[in-house]
Design a protein that fits this description.
Dirigent protein; elongated; binds 2-acetamido-2-deoxy-beta-D-glucopyranose; 1 helix; 44% strand; Dirigent
Length: 196
Amino acid sequence: MARLTPTKVHVFLFLFLSIILFPVTLAAARSDTFSRNLSPKKLGLKREKLSHLHFYFHDTVSGKNPTAVPVAQAATTNKSPTGFGQVVMIDDPLTVKPEVSSKQVGRAQGIYASASQSELSFLMVLNYFFTEGKYNGSTLSILGRNSVFSGIREMPIVGGSGLFRFARGYAQAKTYTNNLKTKNAIVEYNVYVFHY
Ligand SMILES: *[C@@H]1O[C@H](CO)[C@@H](O)[C@H](O)[C@H]1NC(C)=O
């Protein structure tokens, strides 16, 4: 066997320590970063569920207590047959039955804006804020296209909070009543959402 010269001892020690200390140096390098891998269990995420929610959306534009309020429009909006450019802020109640006096489960809070020059179609950017039962305080976020005179419109659910963390899915809207004079509408919603 070759004699261990001081140089060989140094190389050996260096390699030995490098291997032993590798996890430590790696951890130190990682602590400088802002991200880490995490197991879903550590966030309390168990099995993914699919939920179906059903409610009625009350869009009240006119009357004493409107819940949908125009906040902006373009100089050309009034000349546009589709009201192109109008932006409406809403805080619409969501109820279990078509009657606005029925049990309220939440609100639809956000914006819809006329986004088509050729038909009445809205860009919908809003949150469903639930206030009933286990979903009290949880939200779902909608970002989609709503061509209001079509039979069933589908809008993506792009996320959520609370019990709806990591949510994704879609909402289907079907007009229940639409008063062309007052512009008030009741819309039936079926929402299908994956979440934990
Ligand atoms: C929903 O949560 C809020 C805030 O925690 C609470 O004040 C309210 O009573 C709850 N509503 C229901 C129906 O549980």
